Amino acid sequence: xxxxxxxxxxxxxxALLGLGTAAIATANLxxxxxxxxxxxxxxxxxxxxxxxKFKAKFKTAKIESISLDKENGRYVYDIEGFTSSKEYxxxxxxxxxxxxxxxxxxxxxxxxxxxxxxxxxxxxxxxATKIAQKRVAGKAVEWSLDREGSKHVWEVTIxxxxxxxxxxxxxxxxxxxxxxRD
Length: 182
Hints:
By secondary structure, this protein is an alpha+beta fold. The protein has helices at residues 2-40, 47-57, 125-135, and strands spanning 62-71, 74-82, 86-93, 99-106, 139-148, 151-160, 163-170, 176-181.
């Protein structure tokens, strides 16, 4: 009779341990999703919509870089582009979609060899954020997509307890290039 009770206790304990582990894993997954969504809740305009707005104004411009940063308490897309003779910049409120500023100027001679981003080949900001957060725990607060040599690179700034880390992710291969901590 004592062996039966010991077996029941052991089986019950193992089952509870398994359920507890599953609950913790589920909570961690939900928490990871919440971290990505926390910053995203203030970002109502998609990157694609911001790019379309830029292209509507500067029809022949090629995209050189896209960043999403907090300015004056609000998230702002900063999109830069170029043609063979001019460079362009547009800032768009990421919550309302309204253009904050836009301008163009003549391209300097030393800037004529610029290369455009191939947005159709790059991973999304959300995917880059998830990759960065697997490497560094915290909340993603800033993003930029640029070319570094021949590579398309997402730089994701992660903040946790007042400390910031910058995670560079290859926007084509999804591999982490580097992690710099402040």
